[in-house]
Design brief:
Acyl_CoA_acyltransferase; GNAT_dom; MshD_Acetyltransferase; protein-N-terminal-alanine acetyltransferase activity; Ribosomal protein S18-alanine N-acetyltransferase; alpha+beta
Amino acid sequence: MTGSAEVVYGKLTRHDAARCAELEAQLFEGDDPWPERAFLAELAAKHIHYVAARARIESPAQPAVDKLVGYAGIARLGRTRPYEYEIHTVGVDPAYQGRGIGRRMVASLLEYASGGAVFLEVRTDNEAAIALYESFGFVNVGLRKRYYRASGADAYTMRRDPS
């Protein structure tokens, strides 16, 4: 069971792309979830930074394995300072939600973007994500109608000023 698994944080790798796509399909069904190739392209880009959350699953019958349970990515925009940043995605396995994993990954992205303004888009009906972002100082700066093409759902554009 996932209840007592230790979660460790580190770098997302290209070997994680298939698992990311699997989680995307669960988390963003109906909103054009990213396929494996999208994650591979993101991970190959030098201006994009990803973090991973892995649950260490141990059992007496098998050696410990680290299961990817969360991922989050941010892109640096522009070529000269002061940079701006855009959070591209944050996803946490539904079985692991509510444990602070998303919060820890967002904090890591914001640390990476230290000194720069950070933007993101979030579905207007995703109250949990909006509350998380607001707790980090993000404010709603606009509405993007039908931002999610597949479902037609709207998104807020949120911004966090440099700290």
